[in-house]
Design brief:
The complex is a heterodimer. Chain A is α/β, with parallel strands linked by helices. Chain A is 31% helix and 9% strand. Chain B is an alpha/beta fold. Classes of the chains: A alpha/beta, B alpha/beta.
């Protein structure tokens, strides 16, 4: 396989618009919306607060001298602004969102409700622990769910997202190696890995060594074993991997890794394919982060916040970061002091202030309690079933590089079916926008040329899947017949046509500035 | 299960299309010995919405919400009133349930508010550019230190004794991997002489203002001392509302600003999720971590926004990225930007003044209680008092009386005997006169009583 180093194009051409020009610039329900700085004006305000007199005595002469420059708006103007902005966004609530590797599943509103109970949402992280016992109980219960589902003895709860969890896992590995009095600085990362894996390993001070894949989309065991040695700290593997395939040799990989004295880090981004059916602890894994915003459906929120607790094996558990949560006859207690930890614990440090993403914990536990162990297993099975249904329904008209066997929760296609059509992966994906769908993940994983990675999740009905398949089949057939109108310059019907990313990067405009001010500083 | 649309008949039909007899066949690549029966999981089965709601409501009721008691905790997380419109708007499906805006044609809503957010953060901090947020203030501070190490190619970071101790620990955990992190002495109520510690190996000094004890710091001389030695000043703010009243770090020559944005738009949430604000000078742009949104045009010439300069980021640069960060704090920065839009210049200024006025009034009252001394001569909405007894015991005794009196400094610095009697007290616009009087009265009573011998549960 060859790497697709070129990736996708980032600069569109220009097009003549043939749409009906309106006087307002708006089009029916599609409203244009100016920047908040262009709408607001001085002296107005969307909250009612009194002006109070203050003395200068306690300000140490550090009072702000110049105005900040924030615009003033009334509440209705603010509400309309954000409602109009919201209508320019695609969302899982409005349609199928088949982003492979991102897991856009239904976000139950019960989870939003419970996270806002004042006892959770209005609780201070440093309030006396006698007044936060319910919150600590919730974290403890979520920890039980995570360790039980993964078959791992311990979990560090504080990492704030998947990549932060990766960092936590690698720092635990680093600490464990140091505790053994060894020096190991190399980490093996398969070439199909998420970009965060090598980035995190480098961030944690390791040298990255890439491991090639095999023709059937898995890690090359021969190469892996050849690279294992006394300077290898860990391997980082995603399983199911980013091609949507289960690494069959994972037990063997774990044994070889441990025999070489290294640790086995698993990127848990795709745990949603196997939760309730397979326990990573049984596979020989030493550390795995769990994206609560993927597998356990805390909403993606337009890019965050996430949460990335890390489950740890017995070998790594002593090195988990502060704070630790313990339960004894006096109740639940957070241990925040390195010198007050239980016997044997050697925390490597602290990932962040306070105790992690409580708001995400509440939502994830609500999701888990609603599903139960049976529902979690059903969700995994339905996710895998739906992805295979898509693979089976499309592989005759699109090209599936690993389509001979079943996939896990995502179906991977490459761009060979577009050979000679003049249509690219980008065109194909953008044309889906006109059909009312969010594009699939494209040009990732890098090991497949012009990749299209489709993850339907368990949240779609069969009717929804069938409509989606019909659209994709029709598009693939049209492309092959060189009917390219709908692809060229797509999307045609979105709030914006293709945007010029090249120009944006060449001369970055990263903030609004008042027109009268010179732009020279930018 | 109410969240699963597939029926048994659907599943059968789909399996037939795939050409297998059961879903087990789809898992054939999984080693059979690794597949476990459901009974292995010691966990409950599916439950209805009402049952889950009830169970979690009971857990929530065991906690004392900040709004349910006279409440004075701060130290990096602050109780403020968030207008109802904020929480309503962030729960719109199109914001709540969308992904990172990688397809800009159908994500202009997210991209435009991020562009507005970046502008607001730059204005508020007095800096030239800001990113689309990081996880929180503590991780933003750690990223700022790493960025300073990259820019200066020097190893050492010096942390002020007034930097929140949990921020210090966060910085030490990551920045000590490739460099050296040292802490200046803790001097509650006074500014330490941090300039004297800067040498030619120093990448940055990290100074929080108002500091963890509430003291307002003058950053300008520290910036001058740092710049004279080729080092950078990282300014940290844990109370974003203070920027409505106090001089912005950018106007005090800070090079990088890391700020906790929770105070604006976001609830306390027991510590997370919060939103890290991160701003710097234009010349350091390409060393900045995290997502950035930029203005551009679409193919038909209309103004629009895209994620940009992603060649700094992990999904393009992999091991050469400026950071491994792959997320921002999307919905929290939306809450921040909506709340700040509602406040505007006028509202933020008034809000900040009310905070300072309420804290000043409370400090005056507390200073008159026998056994209480005010430690911080200057402050914004948070100050430190010295008690005649260990503060943790007093907080515990007051909690039993239904008053959450503040954060004992010993919780943050358990091994520093000099802070044992210090209590960090915050007052905001939510603090009423009755709350203040209740604290004053109860504190007077507790301090006049003989110390109890039972151990405090901090």
């Amino acid at each position: 396989m060859t790497m697709n180093a070129q990736g996708r194009p980032t600069a569109p051409g220009t097009i003549e618009s043939n749409e009906l020009a309106t006087i307002s610039g708006d089009r029916g329900l599609d409203h244009e919306e100016a920047l908040i700085f262009e709408i607001g004006r001085d002296g107005h305000c969307g909250v009612d607060l009194p002006t109070v007199q203050i003395s200068e005595n306690r300000l140490a002469g550090m009072r702000r001298k110049a105005p900040i420059g924030l615009p003033g708006l009334s509440e209705p103007e603010v509400v309309r602004h954000y409602v109009r902005l919201s209508r320019m966004n695609y969302a899982i609530d409005s349609g199928l969102y088949p982003l492979g590797s991102c897991t856009m599943k239904h976000n139950p509103r019960l989870n939003e409700k419970v996270a806002r109970f004042p006892g959770f949402g209005d609780l201070h992280p440093l309030a006396p622990q006698s007044t936060t016992q319910g919150a600590l109980e919730l974290i403890s219960e979520l920890m039980k769910w995570l360790t039980t589902l993964t078959g791992m003895p311990a979990v560090a709860m504080s990492p704030k997202a998947g990549a932060h969890g990766e960092l936590c896992g690698l720092l635990a590995i680093r600490a464990a190696i140091q505790a053994r009095g060894e020096k190991r600085n190399r980490i093996l990362v398969p070439e199909s890995a998420h970009g965060t894996n090598p980035a995190t390993a480098a961030f944690a001070g390791f040298v990255i060594d890439e491991v090639k894949g095999t023709a059937d989309g898995r890690v090359d065991m021969v190469e892996l074993e050849g690279k294992l040695g006394p300077d290898v700290a860990a391997i980082m593997l995603t399983n199911p991997n980013t091609c949507g395939l289960f690494e069959r040799d994972i037990r063997h990989m774990a044994d070889a890794t441990h025999k070489a004295g290294a640790y086995f880090y698993c990127d848990g981004a795709n745990f949603n394919a196997i939760a309730g059916r397979v326990r990573p602890g049984d596979l020989g894994i030493d550390a795995m982060h769990i994206n609560l915003h993927k597998t356990f459906s805390t909403p993606h929120g337009g890019g965050g916040p996430g949460a990335g607790p890390v489950v740890l094996s017995a070998a790594l558990a002593p090195f988990a970061p502060l704070p630790l949560l313990v339960h004894d006859d006096k109740g639940f207690r957070l241990i925040e002091d390195r010198e007050a930890v239980p016997d044997g614990a050697q925390p490597f440090g602290r990932m962040c202030a306070f105790h992690g993403q409580m708001g995400m914990f509440t939502r994830a536990l609500s999701y888990m309690l609603s599903h139960g162990r049976d529902g979690v297993r059903q969700a995994s099975e339905d996710a895998v079933l739906s992805a295979n249904y898509i693979l089976a329904s499309l592989k005759d008209v699109m090209s599936a590089p690993f389509g001979d066997g079943p996939c896990m929760h995502e179906a991977l296609f490459d761009d060979h079916f577009l050979d000679g059509t003049g249509v690219t992966t980008l065109d194909f994906a953008k044309a889906m926008i006109d059909e009312g769908y969010h594009p699939m993940t494209m040009y990732f994983p890098l090991v497949v040329h012009g990749a299209m990675l489709i993850e339907p999740t368990e949240s779609e009905s069969k009717d929804s899947l069938d409509r989606y398949i019909h659209v994709l089949r029709t598009m693939a057939l049209e492309a092959k017949e060189k009917k390219t109108e709908r692809f060229t310059g797509a999307p045609h019907l979105a709030p914006r046509r293709r945007l010029d990313e090249t120009a944006a990067a060449r001369k970055p405009i990263l903030r609004w500035r008042k027109k009268e001010l010179p732009q020279a500083a930018e | 299960m109410r969240y699963h649309p597939l029926t048994t008949a659907d599943r059968t039909a789909m399996l037939a299309k795939i050409g297998v007899s059961s879903v087990d066949a789809l898992f054939k690549d999984v080693p059979q010995q690794a597949v476990v029966p459901l009974s292995v999981f010691d966990l409950p089965d599916t439950q209805g919405e009402m049952e889950v709601d009830r169970k979690l409501a009971r857990m929530a009721a065991k906690n004392t919400a900040a709004g349910a008691a006279p409440f004075f905790c701060g130290a990096g997380a602050y109780k403020h009133h968030v207008p109802a419109a904020v929480d309503h708007l962030i729960q719109r499906s199109e914001f709540l349930t969308s992904y990172t805006p990688y397809q800009p044609e159908i994500a202009q809503g997210t991209l435009q508010y991020l562009f507005e957010f970046q502008t607001q953060v730059a204005l508020l901090t007095g800096m030239e550019v800001a990113n689309a947020s990081l996880y929180d203030g503590s991780t933003a501070t750690a990223e700022a230190v790493l960025m300073a190490q990259r820019i200066t190619k020097r190893p050492k970071a010096i942390l002020s004794g007034g930097l929140h101790p949990q921020y210090c620990e966060t910085v030490e955990t990551v920045a000590a991997l490739s460099g050296v992190v040292s802490r200046a002495p803790v001097t509650p109520g006074k500014a330490e002489d941090i300039a004297a510690l800067i040498d030619n190996e120093t990448a940055c000094v990290v100074v929080q203002s108002p500091d963890v004890f509430g003291l307002i710091r003058d950053l300008k001389p520290i910036a001058a001392a740092a710049h004279a030695k080729g080092a950078l000043l990282v300014a940290v703010v844990t109370e974003a509302v203070s920027l409505g009243l106090l001089e912005a770090p950018g106007f005090q020559d800070a090079d990088i600003v890391a700020c906790e944005g929770q105070s604006i738009g976001n609830g306390l949430n027991f510590g997370g999720p919060y939103v890290g604000l991160f701003a710097t000078k234009e010349k350091y742009l390409r060393q900045m971590p995290g997502r950035l949104t930029g203005e551009t045009t679409d193919a038909s010439g209309k103004r629009g926004y895209v994620l940009t300069l992603s060649t700094r980021e992990q999904h393009i640069r992999r091991e050469k990225a400026t950071s491994n960060i792959c997320t921002n704090s999307g919905l929290c920065c939306l809450a921040f930007t909506i709340h700040l839009s509602l406040l505007g210049e006028e509202g933020l200024t008034r809000l900040a003044r009310i905070n300072h006025a309420n804290a000043s009034a409370l400090a005056d009252k507390l200073a008159r209680v026998p056994g209480v001394d005010l430690v911080t001569p200057s402050f914004f909405n948070e100050f430190t008092i010295k008690l005649s007894r260990p503060a943790a015991d007093v907080v515990d005794a007051l909690a039993k009386r239904g008053i959450v009196a503040g954060v004992p400094a010993s919780r943050l610095l358990p091994h520093d005997p000099s802070v044992r009697d210090l209590l960090i007290v915050a007052a905001t616009e939510t603090t009423t006169e009755e709350d203040a009087d209740a604290l004053v009265k109860a504190l007077g009573t507790v301090l006049s009583e003989a110390p109890s011998t039972s151990g405090a549960m901090f």
